[in-house]
Specification:
Layout (H helix, E strand, L loop, with lengths): L8 H12 L15 E9 L7 E11 L4 E12 L9 H14 L6 E5 L11 H9 L3 E5 L16 E7 L2 E8 L7 E7 L3 H10 L9 H23 L1
Parallel strand pairs: 1-4, 4-5
Antiparallel strand pairs: 1-2, 2-3, 5-8, 6-7, 7-8
Helix pairs in contact: 2-3
Length: 233
């Protein structure tokens, strides 16, 4: 079993810095031409044990109609513990397994986690985008780094987030009376376009973009059924 003391953090930091040099913050596809958007989320059979089984879900939606076009799952045993700022080393392996199963190629991947709003610009959305060369956006529920002013309490109000005077993302309140989401580019997309695509992907008065929301809800059901089978066997 891998323990934090057996992990060379300095080596991982060096790898993140090396990968961050490959990030492209220009639009690979104009945001107005984005049609198929994937949502990516990960859960675990037991977050308190290590090793455990990680489960990923990727959904693909037509965001003009909000029609679900594809949904895939993957399971993978992992033994990398949760360490802040190194989430990709725990969750990316199972995401890549699910990614291989997609029958439809999305224009953009929205990933539950950080993009370049990360100390080394290598949140899980950036890591995924660099290793796959896909267009990726980080949609996080909590702030990791950066300074910003609180957005106004109205839908789609946004405030920029800076790190070392560089614009890295936005805090976006996607519905009134809810905490903001932290949206940043992962790879192959600009900061402003990342926010535009994420906002376009929100359906009705839900807080999360529909592809991520559906992936999250589907994972809860999948995990429940997986555990039922485990205890029956």
């Amino acid at each position: 079993m891998m323990k934090p003391e057996n992990i060379d953090i300095k080596d991982l930091e060096k790898e993140q810095i090396r990968l961050s040099s490959k990030i492209n913050l220009k639009d690979k596809i104009p945001p107005q031409k984005v049609k198929l958007v994937a949502g990516v989320d990960v859960t675990f059979t037991n977050i308190w044990t290590n090793p455990t089984t990680s489960i990923a879900c990727i959904t693909v939606f037509d965001i003009d109609t909000f029609e679900l076009k594809d949904i895939v799952y993957a399971e993978k045993k992992i033994d990398f513990p949760y360490i802040p700022t190194f989430l990709a080393y725990r969750e990316l392996p199972v995401i890549l397994e699910a990614y291989k199963k997609l029958k439809i190629k999305p224009d953009v991947f929205l990933i539950d986690g950080q993009g370049i709003l990360h100390p080394r610009m290598m949140g899980i959305a950036s890591h995924f985008g660099v290793v796959t060369d896909e267009v990726s956006v980080g949609v996080a529920k909590s702030k990791l780094v950066g300074n910003f002013k609180e957005p106004e309490n109205k839908k789609f109000s946004a405030k920029p987030i800076y790190i070392d005077k560089q614009l890295r993302g936005y805090a976006v309140r996607t519905r009134k009376n809810s905490k903001p989401l932290f949206i940043s580019p992962g790879n192959n997309i600009s900061v402003d376009s990342a926010v535009k695509v994420a906002i376009r992907s929100i359906k009705g008065d839900y807080k999360l973009p529909e592809p991520i929301r559906t992936a999250h809800n589907s994972l809860q059901e999948y995990r429940k059924n997986l555990l039922k089978k485990k205890y029956k066997s």
